[in-house]
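Tip: read the tokens left to right.
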């Protein structure tokens, strides 16, 4: 039985906010790791990024899309044979 003082709405809200903050922080860390990988090797592949950071290729694609949208990186050339360019 749940005690009277236990407010489930507040607890759920707090957990959601906490989860969102932690997700945001890990997203920022992943973005920074991607930028660092590109600094070290402009020919790095998304597969290599995923393996290096230990996240999925889909997560890498989302982070790259965000970085492109923010004007931080750009892809020059095709997927095979192209390279990454840091804009900021």
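Filled-in amino acids:
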């Amino acid at each position: 039985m749940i005690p009277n003082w236990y407010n489930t709405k507040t607890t759920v809200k707090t957990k959601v906010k906490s989860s969102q903050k932690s997700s945001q922080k890990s997203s920022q860390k992943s973005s920074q790791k991607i930028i660092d990988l590109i600094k070290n090797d402009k020919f790095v592949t998304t597969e290599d990024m995923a393996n290096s950071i230990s996240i999925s290729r889909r997560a890498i694609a989302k982070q790259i899309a965000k970085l492109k949208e923010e004007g931080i990186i750009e892809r020059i050339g095709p997927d095979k044979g192209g390279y990454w360019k840091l804009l900021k």
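The longest helix spans residues 8-40. DSSP finds three helices and two strands in the chain.
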